[in-house]
Amino acid sequence: MDHVEIAGELVRDRFPEARAAFLAGSVLTHRRTPTSDLDIVVLLTGPPAPFRESLVHEGWPVELFVQTEADWRLFAERETADRKSPLLAMCADGMLLIDADGLGAVLQAESRERLAAGPPPVSATELEDRRYALTDTLDDLRGCTDLLEQAYLVADLLQRASELALLAGGHWLGGGKWLSRRLAAADPGLHRRLTAGAAAAMSQRADGTGHFTEAVKEVLELAGGPLWAGYSRG
Fold first, then answer.
1. What is the pLDDT of residues 49-84, one digit of tens each?
2. How many whole angstroms separate alpha carbon 31 and alpha carbon 37?
3. What single DSSP character describes residue 121?
4. What are the contacts of 143-149 at 24+ separation with CB within 8 A?
5. For the structural domain made of 2-117, what CATH number should be given?
6. Cα separations (Å) of 161 from 51, 213, 222?
7. Is the peptide bond before 50 cis (omega within 30 degrees of 0)?
8. H helix intervals, the chain
9. Torsion of CA 42, 47, 52, 55, to 10 degrees
10. What's the mean per-residue pLDDT of the chain?
11. Model pLDDT for residues 155-171, shown as the tens digit of each residue
């Protein structure tokens, strides 16, 4: 638990007037690795908030997200509109290091409620746009004869397909490793088929794209089917 103690000491030393502070991220879970950093959300009453800073403290990489309550709500609204809110996740799942006036408990409860309620529904227009883009890129992969280009197409398709599957199911999005984790939680079977197919396709075997193509087609069917001919935008 030295990482918890170090995070608490850092907050107390740098922000003695902090209203609340959360320690979050993989460092609190079994997913912790030698490169895991300390993600710390700090709530102040005013300046120097808001700001973000990366630093190394006592040998630990640290990401500071320093905000006022008003800033916190502004960021939470913006991220919710994008259906991807690292801030809500950090406060919902994080450990309260400091809670001077009860704000930390309030924001943690609100974060959990908002995450459980799910993101705003995807519009029909956005769903069509994403179906079209995925269909078009999948066609590119089918016709690809350059193994180097194939790697880029597979990477693009994996992200597009994962996001479309989450949106079609009403789930929160994520970036990087969190996109994988969101899909794994929402649909473990589809996650396995997509990632295993992508790994085979990335192996650059001539016959390596078949399973991946089928998994992407499965996502398209979940979202309403492929869309290319007849697609039009003003």
1. 999 999 999 999 999 999 999 999 999 999 999 999
2. 12
3. P
4. 147/204
5. 3.30.460.10
6. 34, 11, 11
7. yes
8. 2-14, 69-81, 86-93, 103-117, 124-143, 147-168, 177-186, 188-202, 210-222
9. -80
10. 94
11. 999 999 999 999 999 99
